[in-house]
Amino acid sequence: MAQPADQVRHPEKANKPDNPIQRKPAWIRVKAPTSRVYAETRDLMRGLNLRTVCEEAACPNIGECWSQKHATVMILGSVCTRACTFCNVATGRPDLLDPHEPERVAEAVGKLALKHVVITSVDRDDLPDGGADHFARTIRAIRLFAPGTTIEVLTPDFLRKEGAIEVVAAARPDVFNHNLETVPRLYGEVRPGARYFNSLRLLDQVKRHDPSIFTKSGIMVGLGEAKEEVLQVMDDLRAADVDFLTIGQYLQPTPKHHRVDRFVTPDEFASLQTHAYAKGFLMVSASPLTRSSYHAGDDFVRLRAAREARLSGVA
């Protein structure tokens, strides 16, 4: 659910110089959503007073995903305590925590009859546990209301929140996703409130806590990174035993956000995907429109099959 029109969505960016938004190449243009199922999904989310990252982050795939009843639910409010220069989620003073949100999320999952659901959130540096218990309660509520649904969480980094990772992992999501977003050299510009090696350590800790949980991470390209830096990120993720990597094109939400350095071609994405598989990832999704939860349900089925094949010695 978007902020009221009279509120400044990104107050920390208001005095920054504009970065003109470049015209998108043909391979990443999408049609405006118009389907009946899209409208039904939107109305259900609003009726249950739930937010989705699809809307809040202005995802280009919202028309396709919502037309298939795929939505990524965003918990812990709509206002983030960080100020990443790539992100369109509102920043500022965070919302009060809604104690009934986990049950409403579970109700939506049941009404949409989802086989797979992705739960994400804003960063909540103001909370003692960063929102970890709220994630765990949401996972447990979905297990109760929709026991056949597989659950993927896309969490913040829980920076300086001791024990938070273990709380979420103990609730046993099927997939624990946390995005590195970019290469370490660009963290100061792109993700100034985060720490690259803290995010790597999070993914490593999840796998050490419960090796049966699939781990996943994603990065954007087109922010000014070099290919060699992207390949190093792949190596770092494999050292943390991450199973699934997503790579997508960064798209600039407003003139106040980080500029697009360049539009990466489909052939370059195909090359990155080949490199990633060669490094040992079970699953890789690399394309201009790839996002963390894009085709997440279908990808989970393939991810599980890939693990079974590797364990059986087939792959």
UniProtKB/TrEMBL annotation:
PROSITE patterns, per database record: RADICAL_SAM
Its cellular-component GO annotations read:
cytoplasm
Record's NCBIfam families? lipA, PRK05481.1, PRK12928.1
Task: Provide the alphabetized UniProt keywords.
Answer: 4Fe-4S, Cytoplasm, Iron, Iron-sulfur, Metal-binding, S-adenosyl-L-methionine, Transferase
Region of interest (Disordered), ranges:
1-24
Q: Where is the Radical SAM core domain?
A: 66-282
Copy the pathway line from the protein's UniProt record: Protein modification; protein lipoylation via endogenous pathway; protein N(6)-(lipoyl)lysine from octanoyl-[acyl-carrier-protein]: step 2/2
* Compartments it resides in: Cytoplasm
Q: Which HAMAP family match?
A: Lipoyl_synth
Keyword Iron present in the record's keywords: the answer is yes
Which CDD domains would you find in this protein's record?
A: Radical_SAM
Q: Which reaction does it catalyse?
A: [[Fe-S] cluster scaffold protein carrying a second [4Fe-4S](2+) cluster] + N(6)-octanoyl-L-lysyl-[protein] + 2 oxidized [2Fe-2S]-[ferredoxin] + 2 S-adenosyl-L-methionine + 4 H(+) = [[Fe-S] cluster scaffold protein] + N(6)-[(R)-dihydrolipoyl]-L-lysyl-[protein] + 4 Fe(3+) + 2 hydrogen sulfide + 2 5'-deoxyadenosine + 2 L-methionine + 2 reduced [2Fe-2S]-[ferredoxin]
Origin: domain of life:
Bacteria
Q: Which SMART domains match?
A: Elp3
Lineage of the source organism?
Bacteria, Pseudomonadati, Pseudomonadota, Alphaproteobacteria, Rhodospirillales
EC number(s) per UniProt?
2.8.1.8
Binding-site positions, [4Fe-4S] cluster 2 = 80, 84, 87
What is the similarity comment for this entry? Answer: Belongs to the radical SAM superfamily. Lipoyl synthase family.
Q: Give me the residues that bind [4Fe-4S] cluster 1, please.
A: 54, 59, 65, 293
Does the UniProt entry include the keyword Transferase? yes
Pfam families named among the record's database cross-references: LIAS_N, Radical_SAM
Instruction: Identify this protein by name.
Output: Lipoyl synthase
